[in-house]
Amino acid sequence: MENQTISPRQFMFIVILFTIGSSILIVPTPMAALAKQDAWLSVILSVMAGLLLVFLYNKIGESAKGKTFIQASTYAFGAWFGRLFSVFYLIFIYILAALVLRNIGDFMTTQIIPETPLQFTHILFLLVVIAGAYLGVQVIGRSAEIFIPWLILLLLFMVLSITPQISIDNLKPVLGNGILPVVKTSNIVIGTPFLEMVTLLMIFPYVKESKKTSHAWLLGALMGGGVLLLITLLCLLVLGPDLTALNAYPTYKVGEKINIAGFLEGLEIIIAIIWMITIFFKLIVLYYASSVGIAQFLKLKDHRPLLLPLGMGMVVLSIIAYPDVAYFETFVGETWMSYALTHGLILPLILWAGLAIKNKKSNNT
Amino acid sequence: MKQDSKGASSNSSSNTAVSEKLLSSLDENMNIIEQKLGKSSDLVIRRVSISKTACAVVYIDGLVDKDTVQEYVMEALMLDLPSHRTSAKHLYDKIKKASLPIGELSEVEEFAHLLNRLLSGETLLLIDKEAKALVASTKGWRDRGVQESTSESVIRGPKEAFNETLRTNTALLRRKIRDPNLRMDAKRIGKMTQTDIAVAYIEGTAEDSVIKEVHARLDQIDIDGVLESGYIEEYIQDAQYSPFPTIYYSEKPDAIAAGILEGRVAIIVDGTPDVLLVPALFVNFFQSSEDYYQRADIGTLIRLLRLVCFSIALFMPSLYIAFTTFHQEMIPAPLLISLAAQREGVPFPAFVEAMIMELTFEILREAGIRLPKPVGSAVSIVGALVLGQSAVQAGLVSPAMVIVVAITAISSFVFPAYNMAIPIRMLRFIFMFLAATFGLYGIILGLIALVFHLCSLQSFGVPYMSPFAPIVAKDQKDVLIRFPHWGLFTRPTSTAKKNQKRTNPSSKES
């Protein structure tokens, strides 16, 4: 397929960007609605659960021995059942990509460019994604290396400049409603982004020095989770749990509160930039994975001819995927977990078992 | 100012097509030469008779150093030789071994080589009954001499610049680098111009793969003429469809020598002062040789300033458009009021206003370069007064727009490399268009696309954005910040993997 490789560090950066991805945009609201002031505790819980998931994915990636998810499933289950198996995986990634595209479109058309139609926002975004996916995984990895320092600087700037507005009282009482809501709420962050990380099994084989890959994946997930924790904490500390739950984009609201020396205001644009970059990387990984996956599914030599047609489908799918943001919030809070669990945990587990049996067989013969 | 310079290496000749051998009759040989060259007015043929043997001296007037020909060829042949009695039989050997007091003397047996040497400024000596000719190196034509650099000026550091003669340029490099490993591989490109080219690098420091690649790409060039290094650049550059340059050029010997010391390969083309340097990374275009002559802290600050200017030159007009048309709420209220008041009477939307001003400025700048110097001041008056002040007074553009255009323009002059300023000028208009249609959303997407494009480029196998992407921690010491010279203890890994060590860290007394 492609001879391009990425370094473990580039993979780690991609994982960080993927983890922050769209979660930074959509996670705090439902978390604060359900767990109130303890939402940050559930983020910690879900990061820990997420690390376990990553551990599992790493095991699968290692036992796949340089094959992507699609190649591994045809290897383990044969051409027909393996294909059937991959269809679920591919549809999961493709729909997820459409949802992520809609997330950024919704945000942009409600907050930044209200006059622009949703379709054009999507088309422009997707055009850049397609151009990036055309260039391949190596360029994606290198670009991640360029953006990560900027992201850190922007985050640091945001955190420092919002510090005066922090009020610790917003977190009290800790565990006021008992531990149960905290545990229950943690499923949101487990579902977005940790279960979605199963996508990265499509990129896993392109990482050279595969021994360091699992380390990089774990570290990346941890750092990305750390940023999610930081963002949730900031929302709670600055806005309080009630305002966080009421706002569609609480992080953006936090940015609006920044005020330096009474003159520098309106720095919420920094948040918008961070989102655009992280969502871009999440989307490009999903898009690349789905196009490479479909190419491997159809045994094509090159995934590039698929990029444009897939994009046309995605623009339509992203518009009809859900009618409004309220619907989507319910969907994320109630349905997504079980949907993601099926594809992010059960499918990989089956694949893992299949690979284990197949490997053992080939060892014996 | 007259300076005698020797032309290119005379041992190589790319014209290796099967060619006729010289004949043993002088008359026939001369007929063929005259026939091949036609009746050119600068062809000088002097027939002489030495020891009763007919000989001919042939050279091209203007390409040879007349004094050399006079003193060391003509006088030697006509005055010194006859005084020793030489038999016709041994005349050729005598002349070759003893009579011509010239450093570079060689034999040629084929017409193609003969003409080639003649046309590069050497003097031919043909002798009757000999099927070969002696070629004396008498190259020497007028050139500009080594003068101060006009396109890259510095406050501190050497002022000299390359000139149009290859040999002078290689000498300038040799004078800076006395390392015996400095190689100057000769090449000749251009079917008609037969332009001499030298590929300079330090053996053992430069990457073998890069040297090989440079030679391979140069050998593939098939063109009738090479008049400037730009011809070569377009043939061998990696990114044919990118606005960004992947080959660095400079007319300053110190900049090129610094590149060679870092393991890069220089390509010197006869006839132009601009020497190419490969591989070229994105960051190279933001570094000036002066960064290394000023103290480290100053050098660092200047580099950071250049990066700031890079972003201003690229994004300032588009940000202005985006903020004034789409995101007024993000501008602080007092500033917004002042901006709105200025734009009150302006009939155009911000995008049109910005386009008019930017285009006008580009026209002014281009006119400023082409115009003869005495007229230049007129252009600046027209630019400053008519387009700046009067346009504002007439209510066509807002004063804020003039400020934006002015700061953008000045920022784009900051880059030491002119060929990096051009893509920024072009991309600025694309970003302005994106800002006018999609606001900040468009600008950020454009930026992401730009970064992806830059990351996809490479120059002779080296990733263009290195050492940022892929990150090379070791190389960061000489990119955004410049460490003091004693701290630059390794060469960049991207260009000199083999010979890393540059200085002994303990060589600085603490």
TrEMBL record, chain A:
Belongs to the amino acid-polyamine-organocation (APC) superfamily. Spore germination protein (SGP) (TC 2.A.3.9) family. NCBIfam families: 2A0309 (TIGR00912). It is a multi-pass membrane protein. The chain crosses the membrane at residues 12-33, 39-57, 77-100, 120-140, 147-168, 188-207, 216-240, 260-285, 306-324, 336-357. Gene3D superfamilies: Amino acid/polyamine transporter I (1.20.1740.10). GO terms for biological process: spore germination. This is Spore gernimation protein. The keyword Membrane applies.
From TrEMBL, chain B:
Belongs to the GerABKA family. It comes from Halobacillus salinus. This is Spore germination protein. It is a multi-pass membrane protein. One of its GO terms (biological process) is spore germination. Its main location: membrane. It is found in: Cell membrane; Membrane. It comes from the Bacteria. Keywords: Membrane, Transmembrane, Transmembrane helix. Signal peptide: none annotated. One of its GO terms (cellular component) is plasma membrane.
